[in-house]
Amino acid sequence: MSDSQDVVDYMLDLGRNARAAARRLVAADTGTKNRALLAMAEALEAARPVLARENAKDLEAGEAKGLDAALLDRLALKPATIDGMIEGLRQVAALPDPCGEITDMSYRPSGIQVGKMRVPLGVIGIIYESRPNVTIDAASLCLKSGNAAILRGGSEAIHSNRAIAECVRQGLKAAGLPESAVQVVETTDRAAVGQLIAMPEYVDVIVPRGGKSLIERISNDARVPVIKHLDGICHVYIDADADAEKAFAIALNAKTHRYGVCNAMETLLVHSDRAASLLPRIAEALAEKGVELRGCERTCELISARPATEEDWATEYLAPVLAIRVVNDVDEAMDHIDRYSSQHTESIVTENYTRARRFLAEVDSSSVMVNASTRFADGFEYGLGAEIGISTDKLHARGPVGLEGLTSQKWIVFGDGHIRT
């Protein structure tokens, strides 16, 4: 499928099919959706040899193209990865169904009863790279929340994604749901992405999952609303009234628990009253783990660190690199965060309740924490069961996006022959 018009027609067909499927999913009850998810899990279990064979094709092609070891690792469908996909389907099946939930019912002076009902968004387009297991994550969350999905994975995982898509179709068919409720784009032509993000008549929202360049392109070119985050420039501020042991443990965990994740700390801010006593110990522990330190002038006077540049404060390293700045008070810390943060996650370490409340109220990020590692900014840790991604947008969904984030609300009204006078 190389002709551009063929790709456009193909994507329009997917869109029409998804819109029709979304209409049927609205009427699907929780039991039916759960049966589909559990049938998908059974299909994956039975298809292990097929998944391994198709994934081997992607890995072989990836090696031939010179993909690096980290990318090949993300691409691999190891037995443990398939175990995780199966368990993920079962976990989503066990989650409460948000669809149809009615809240905030109240009587108005006119006698009508007004409230809100939670409903699916409709059709969700998800664009992602590398990891074929995202196909199952996205399919399960979209289906459980009552949405049809069009999934466009990376070309490097095309064989794996096609094999997984077949398991998804089997699950949908077993539950009596339309197989077009979850469609995996089967062309690797990049024109498919451009078409997917330009079909507002068929697609209600786009969720891009991948590197910054992909998300920037989608955000700039889409004619459909996008749920996204570009960077995870997360900060931890150690306050004058911080508990030293808590500060040490949180700083170390936030940076070194995992490096290549969006909720890892990228900048450490330390109150000047605590810098001399805390920074050398923290720096020694970070150095033992191979973390490169880049600091402001006052930081470099206290520990061994490279002088930080303006670019360092605005960089998501996703690597064992940390920027450190000494500040005079919480206001200077919040000013720094306001200037450089990507509005993902920030944390304050303090025993001062008033200062903690100020930080919670005034820092404008999707997750703001007190005495906790930024690594907790995660759908599973927040009790969502699973997440489609983390949004730094302010409208509709913010922070980890789980089942509820893939729904909206509509007003509902009950009357008994009421007319407005």
Written overview of the protein:
With 421 residues, this protein is of the alpha/beta class. Helices cover 44% and strands 19% of the residues. The chain contains 15 helices and 16 strands. It has helices at residues 4-26, 30-46, 48-65, 69-75, 79-94, 133-144, 158-174, 191-196, 212-221, 244-256, 272-288, 297-302, 310-313, 330-340, 353-362; strands spanning 102-107, 113-120, 123-128, 148-152, 182-184, 205-209, 234-238, 265-271, 292-295, 306-307, 321-327, 345-349, 367-370, 389-391, 399-401, 407-414. Strands 10-9-11-8-7-12-13 form a 7-stranded parallel beta sheet, with helices on both faces. It has a 4-stranded parallel beta sheet with strand order 5-4-3-6, sandwiched between helices. Strands 1-2-16 form a 3-stranded antiparallel beta sheet, with no helix packed on it. A hairpin with a 7-residue loop joins β14 and β15 (399-401). α5 packs parallel to α6 and α10 crosses α11.
Observed structural traits:
alpha/beta, 421 residues, single chain, four-stranded parallel β-sheet, globular
Short description:
The protein is built from 15 helices and 16 strands. With 421 residues, it is of the alpha/beta class.
